Amino acid sequence: MKEIPVSTLKVFGTQSMLLNDVSRSILFSREMNNFDSSVDKFVKSSLLKQAVIVWNQVFGSRGEHCHWSQFTSKQKVIEPFSRDSILVSLGITLDEWSKYHENMKRLRDKFLAHFDMDTETDHFPNMDFALAVVEAYREWLYRLFQEYQKAFPVRAGFLNTAEFNILIEREWEEKKQIVQE
Predict the structure, then answer these.
(1) Which of 17, 31, 75, 169 gets the most CB atoms within 10 Å of its CB?
(2) Alpha helical stretches, state H, 60-126
């Protein structure tokens, strides 16, 4: 295996940061489900909006610089991540994925990033799907990074999903302790 190109390391870092942001936003918003103040509702809503916008940077339009397809098709180290990987991780059909994907893009394009008065936003998409796709891709990216690490050890704080979720739980507990003091 040849040395990891700097451009590949940059993609690892950027996608890792984006995946972390989506996961953190969704998981923190879930922790806020039982909070009823207007401030808490605003923070939860903001977290979910952030999750949708950032999720679309990796899974939205294929033209995005950080879209998963821009990266996975260029590597030859492990089996590529694919739309089939997404379907398996969600346990849904291609038609169901297409509808979900379009709904997430429409929400970003017509309501969050740009506001279109004619866009109906009667419901927020199922964020379980968004999180499952993020976690499936994080696991794939982690396996790829591990393969590269065998030949070229690089110091990085790239965590797999289980490790990252433990980190999030710890962060939330620390936040609760600070608020209670």
Answers:
(1) 31
(2) 68-72, 83-90, 94-107
* In the block, residue with structure tokens 């401030």: 39
How remote is the C-alpha of 38 from its chain's centroid? 27
* CA distances to 2, 76, 126 from 154, in Å: 14, 19, 36
Residues 80, 86, 90, 92: is their CA dihedral positive or negative? negative
| Span between the terminal Cα atoms of the chain, in Å | 52
Check residue 84 and give its pLDDT: 95
Cα within 13 Å of Cα(22), Cβ side: 26
Q: How many CB atoms lie within 10 A of CB 96?
A: 13
Q: Which of 144, 141, 125 is nearest to 20 (CA)?
A: 141
**Amino acid identity, position 117:** M
Helices (H) then strands (E): counts for the chain: 7, 0
As given in the structure block, the two tokens for residue 160 are 């797999």
State the DSSP string of 121-154.
--S---HHHHHHHHHHHHHHHHHHHHHHHHHS--
Our CA dihedral for 96, 97, 103, 104, rounded to 10 degrees, sits at: 150
Q: What does pTM read for this prediction?
A: 0.88
Q: What does the pLDDT look like over 58-96, one tens digit per residue?
A: 999 998 888 999 888 777 888 889 999 999 999 999 999
